[in-house]
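Model it.
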Amino acid sequence: MEQLVDGRRLIEDFIRLWREGSLVEGCDRYLADEVRWLNSGQPACVGKLACVRLAERFTAVFPRVDTQVVALAVAADAVLVERVDRCIRADGTQGPAVEVTGSFRIKNGLITYWYDYFDPAAFVASG
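Modeled.
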């Protein structure tokens, strides 16, 4: 039962860092070395260092993600999060708002798998 509470808390803390403008820090802190991070329509990002670099590229454009958690479910080592991510540009203006379902797997207190399912058209439309 403790693993369920820890997985929930870990993902809640990870998402809190996005709101604070610390996605890169969150990736460095919570991703396992062997992590696989997938985003709809994009090739898999494999390995912590590659994922941190991807987060750096994303935050160069959208340094903060104002995330609203709609639902969060935990089962064993899996955490599913339905959310709305409102991407905030460096100048403080609103970027795309995207409905996302995130699937996470946790092992030894770290994220080993992260797949965000969303319609990437919002990013294309935002320029």
